[in-house]
């Protein structure tokens, strides 16, 4: 698929985008899928917020949650397309002939891809609190949608964590050790740790409400 035929989240149907994802060309790939999962989590957050009737003291907070979710949906889709572009460069670097040029290209592409995934991950971390608020105060009839949103958010955070870690690991192809990579890119390395902590937080919040969403599994 050439650039003229490339699909994006902005101008393609879901059918066309997922068809492109299913092809063996890596753009879009797992990183872009991470962005779409984050957009799904944001969309469900927005929906639940819209169905929630706030108390007098909750109106401002709920309105802010609704607005953040709407903005996140748009940002996540843009980030998905950015990651698809980074993924294309990453794949191209690995197809080069072995030598210094290939090593430099892999290094640049790996860092760019890791940074793109880190941004997605940070957006996912920021969304946890709003979804947690809705789990406690949102419309109880939509508790199942909140659990689905947590699932999508977990997939997004997992994808971001794994992609940042993998891209950092790719830097060892030029002979660097993981310890050297950590010292050279401390912010990205710390991002992986923060995303691991975010996954634990999501799991804790989901466990607290799962019995309400899936009562047949209770007990």
What keyword list fits this structure?
219 residues; mainly alpha; 7 helices; 77% helix; 0% strand
Would you kindly provide a written description of the structure presented here, covering whatever features stand out?
It is a single chain. This protein is mainly α and 219 residues long. 77% of the residues lie in helices and 0% in strands. The protein has helices at 14-22, 30-51, 59-94, 100-137, 143-170, 178-184, 186-213. It is elongated.
Short description:
The protein has about 220 residues and is mainly alpha-helical. The protein contains seven helices and no strands.
* Main β-sheet description: none
Structural class: mainly alpha
In sequence order, what are the helices and strands, one letter per element? HHHHHHH
Amino-to-carboxy terminus distance:
51 Å
Q: Note poorly predicted spans.
A: none
Mean pLDDT: 90
* Secondary structure: helix percent: over 70%
**Subunit organisation of the chains:** single chain
Write the layout of secondary structure elements.
Layout: H1 14-22, H2 30-51, H3 59-94, H4 100-137, H5 143-170, H6 178-184, H7 186-213
Helix pairs in contact: 2-3, 2-4, 2-5, 3-4, 4-5, 4-7, 5-7
């Amino acid at each position: 698929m050439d650039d003229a035929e490339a699909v994006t989240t902005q101008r393609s149907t879901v059918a066309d985008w997922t068809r492109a994802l299913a092809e063996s060309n890596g753009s879009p790939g797992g990183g872009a899928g991470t962005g779409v999962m984050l957009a799904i989590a944001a969309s469900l957050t927005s929906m639940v917020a819209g169905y929630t009737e706030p108390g007098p003291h909750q109106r401002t907070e709920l309105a802010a949650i609704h607005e953040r979710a709407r903005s996140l949906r748009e940002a996540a889709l843009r980030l998905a397309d950015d990651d698809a572009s980074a993924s294309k460069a990453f794949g191209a670097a690995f197809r080069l002939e072995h030598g210094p040029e290939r090593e430099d290209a892999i290094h640049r592409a790996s860092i760019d891809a890791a940074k793109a995934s880190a941004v997605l991950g940070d957006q996912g971390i920021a969304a946890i609190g709003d979804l947690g608020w809705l789990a406690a105060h949102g419309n109880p009839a939509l508790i199942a949608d909140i659990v689905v949103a947590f699932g999508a958010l977990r997939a997004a955070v997992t994808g971001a964590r794994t992609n940042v870690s993998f891209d950092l690991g790719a830097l060892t192809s030029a002979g660097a050790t993981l310890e050297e990579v950590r010292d050279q890119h401390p912010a990205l390395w710390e991002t992986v740790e923060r995303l691991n902590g975010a996954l634990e937080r999501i799991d804790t919040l989901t466990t607290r409400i799962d019995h309400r969403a899936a009562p047949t599994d209770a007990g």
